[in-house]
Write a structure and sequence with these properties.
binds calcium ion; Arc Repressor Mutant, subunit A; globular; 4-stranded antiparallel sheet
Length: about 220
């Protein structure tokens, strides 16, 4: 069963959202302030739903701590503020989805389903769940990447991109294909989002040869 941590200081909204999420059969722990959420990071839910504007601490700060302590756990941001979408989505901070208030609770449920499925589903073809991406090895079951048997900490988007490259070694991938795969088709992504993500991946996986294809996208060279 999936465990979801919801942080929302507006008590009414918190209750409504909790009710909707519970109806899907998920376990929900709800927080109405940032401090108690901070203390729960180590309990590692499957997903966080985070309000940005909190009374005690900044939601960005909370996100940063979550990503430091459990980089693979996805986060959906909810906020009335919509000016900062680029920052929120990401690209520096690693949020996985974003919903602007006001939104229909149903919309949050749909997004939640989508992320949980993307992050935790185990496709049947992965009987052999280990993919070689020399000198790295991806374990699809664990959603982890190793080099010399040591885990390299990736955010869930960085992992998704590495997996996409691993499944398409030697193939040119357009920025649009990458957006569709990593962010989902309804995300109005910018090329910059992709470039930022690639830049971060290059930094974390320096031995991976990611070629830039000018005006198009990227390709990982097969060894
Ligand atoms: Ca709030």
């Amino acid at each position: 069963m999936f465990r979801i941590f919801l942080v929302e200081d507006e008590v009414n909204l918190n209750q409504i959202l909790t009710t909707y999420l519970l109806k899907e059969g998920w376990e929900v722990r709800s927080f109405t302030d940032g401090q108690s959420a901070l203390q729960a990071i180590a309990d590692r839910p499957h997903l966080w739903i985070l309000d940005i504007m909190l009374p005690d601490i900044d939601g960005y700060q909370l996100l940063r701590r979550i990503k430091e302590q459990s980089p693979g756990v996805p986060v959906i941001f909810i906020s009335a503020r919509d000016a900062d979408i680029d920052r929120i989505m990401g690209l520096e901070m690693g949020s996985d989805d974003y919903l602007a208030k006001p939104f229909l609770p149903r919309e949050l449920v749909i997004r939640t389903h989508r992320i949980l499925e993307r992050v935790y589903s185990r496709p049947n073809e992965s009987q052999n769940s280990v993919i070689n991406l020399e000198p790295y090895v991806l374990d699809e079951e664990k959603r982890q990447i190793y080099k010399n048997n040591e885990v390299i900490e990736l955010t869930s988007k960085e992992y998704d991109l590495a997996l996409f490259f691993a499944q398409n070694k030697g193939r040119a991938l357009s920025r649009e294909q990458i957006i569709n795969r990593v962010w989902g088709e309804d995300y109005i992504g910018t090329d910059r989002s992709v470039d930022d993500l690639v830049r971060r991946l290059r930094k974390k996986l320096p031995d991976l040869r990611i070629e830039t294809i000018y005006g198009y996208g990227y390709r990982v060279t097969a060894k």
